[in-house]
Amino acid sequence: MDAALSLGDFLAVAVENPKIETPDLIEAARTLRSRSGFVCLEDGLPGPESFSLLAADPDLVMSGDLSNWADFEAELARRSAPSADLGVPTGAAIGWVGFDGSFRFGFYEDLAIHHHGRGIWLTNPPTMDGPAEPGFSRPEWRPRISREHFVSMVTRAKEYIAAGDIYQVCLAQAFECEFAGDPWGYYESLRHHSPAPYSAFLDLGGCQVVSASPECFLRMNGRRIITRPIKGTRPRRMDQQLDQRNAYDLLTSPKEIAELVMITDLERNDLGRVCDYGSVCVPELLKLESFQHVHHLVSTVQGILREDVSQPAALRACFPGGSISGAPKKRALEIIAELEPHPRGIYTGAIGYFGYNGESQFSIAIRTAVFENGRGSFHSGAGIVADSEPEAEWQETLDKAATLLLPAQKR
Question: Is 391 labeled as catalytic in the residue annotation?
Fold first, then answer.
């Protein structure tokens, strides 16, 4: 199979073969759910090239940590056939990299690609003999630390900021639950109640990962690379005036503006280490983006990768994202390790794919739950700066956690 099919060819096939217009994505996914290595990555961003993918039965699953990333990179290079006419990948390495550098990827030679705008399939979709809607218990999520504990973490972080160790750090608290049933059912409920630009379900063995991330870590098309850090959060309101007031408050908040400008500069520096000199730019700064439950501020940073830098090497060089670590990044990571009582695991790592055609996309693994051995867990964080109010930062973690709590409350 070709490593890439251009969008034009994709749509031409769809016009000539109307039978590939059904089933919808979730119906097709249910058919594949029981198969080994099932993954579903959904692109919720509007646009003519927006697509989602399903895959199962990888011929190889690789795991390790970033210390043996070279082995993964060599395997990816062996399978890749970069295309000048970048379009839709029909083969990819799909998986995740945890905050601690651990990773797990499946290598898939065949993908089922669903084009969102037209509701059509690039490849023949799975036959519809799968199970009905999966069931799952309603998880009772509970925090693993008290409000007082989190407030003390923020207070200590502010002491580090006052001492000049750091300018900003992201601190998170963990939630847990007992869970019975198929986590895919939880994912279906999550995507219904909390649509997100980067929704994902991965079952690569050992655990199931469910994500509804709003944040792009890296998007790479050939040598072009983009990152879109998020900072600043305000809850959405049913009342339109209150909702607009919250959005305005976010857009004009000196704290939130300073925080995103700081992280945007950090990301610009990260890309500068792997990109052609002078190619890194910031086409969007402090843009308001509104999601189902929260408003965020977002920037876009982009550049052109140097000829001697591969896409996996770029991910490793930029990892973890600045928006979920802090600035300066190295010291912020040390403080996170000191103050947070529970390891982050996949949280604030990256989820996505390296397409064999040279197109890759990874989200920041926020709004992300992990299910393993009858238990579920997730983290929710807030960015701490000099003028942070500890109680307000604790509340921000709850506002963000609402995304993952809602499937338990509304199913």
Answer: no
